Amino acid sequence: MASTLIVDVADGQISLVRLEGRGRKALVTGCAVMPAPDHDAESDALPQSLPQAVADAAADLAARHSLLADACVLGMDSRLAFLREYVFPFSSHRKIDSAMRFQLLEESPVPLDDLVLSSVRGPAVEAGTHVAAAALRREDVRAWLDAFDEAGMPVSGMKLDMDGLAACCPEAGPGRVVAVDMGVTRTVAAFMDGGKLLAGRIADMGEQDVLEALHRDCSLSRDAAERTLVFADMTEGGDSKAGSAEARATDCLRQGLENLCAALRRELALFQRHHGFWPEEMVVGGALSRVRGLKGVLEKHFDCRVRLWAEECAPAGAYDSVAERCGYMRAHGLANSLGRSGQSFDFCRGEFARSAGVTLGSSAVRRAAVFGGGMALAFLALALATAHSRSRRADELQQQVALVYKKALGSVRAGLSPMQYESIVRQRMAALNASRNADGQGSVLDVLAAVHGAAGAAPAVQLGELTLDRRRVAFKGTAPGFDAVERLRAALQESDLFAVAAIKESTAVNKGEGIRFAMELERVR
Fold it and tell me: Does residue 158 share a domain with residue 59?
């Protein structure tokens, strides 16, 4: 069965979602997420090393989680794109393309020849045909595609993260819907009418700004601010005692969220002024959507129905927990967009098209093809007779190679090509050597010993999945209560191997059965 890997590199994250099958019958078979190499997405200058660093990190993440697939689709940050909306008084594709290029020629900050254009036709309006246009720098498109080719993950489609928002919730219906990603560094809103993308808006506020408000106004450390996001309850009548430190932190968090809501409301007001209507429904995801009670805060500020994607839209069983789902809304939407022909941006076109069909037109061409086919069959018969013995020997060698890889890579799923197995081996050896040689970081065994030693000292803490790279260690587990998780975090914070130990998720399983948690450690550099 054909498989596709979605690689979302927007908002300082690398999110991977692997699908088996095509269209509505496609199933999510795996996912993984990690921080991307540092880069300011708002900067016009794209460091030459960044695409390759991100591609290598994505390939390593896919290999470690056995997510490699037949095809790869890349989701880019919308802040790298030049976005515009137009209404043309005609519906011809040729006329719309010509008119759009003429408009962009007047408005683009760079020469049109330096851009790769893509467009999405929206619903028919009284004035004509609505078109959403997007453009990426040609040199950026080439750099990203070349980087993923070099990493062994050729890209078959390049889209914007906004496409993922537009398709994240197909069951939202034909009404006027806005999908909002409250991310780490920015908040993106995609407006739809009748299931088709109308426009996108970006507010330059996100989780980092809320954390900064907690640090500035409540004098909380970065780690304490992170814990406030995880544990604070924004619902009306929460159990925080008035005047307590917890109540003050909750008030600061509420103020930070209200500031972000005010910025988002300004973007919605601009949309309403241009399009003449206010959305009927808001679907919300992203890093900040894990805050408990956020739905009530949004319903207070926006006069529309609010749904949290992780709780009400994400497919059951596709992701482990509600907190984990928050980071996959864009990537899951990009997976859904693969079945929406013509309803999403794609910059793998023209000179960057990854495949091309062959059409046999005239009778002369067809006769030539038949003659060439006959000659090819004759040579093929001769080649088959000569290569039969060689084929048997090659099969034996291939079986021996597969057996060696199976013994060396027992945790990786079977059925990969020898080149993919070789890539996984090289990446793991490079990661192991880097870990051994890192100055002051300690070896992989040192890190594992420190984590398991701290867990052994904490009462009844069970560790589960663990991943690590040069910068971070992330793992999940279960514990009898929040105090045990905090003691584990404090013990790891005292280790010389880790600069920061932070709780990223903490969720009660069932009453009396403990909690699930996720923790991230930043290694000493």
Answer: yes
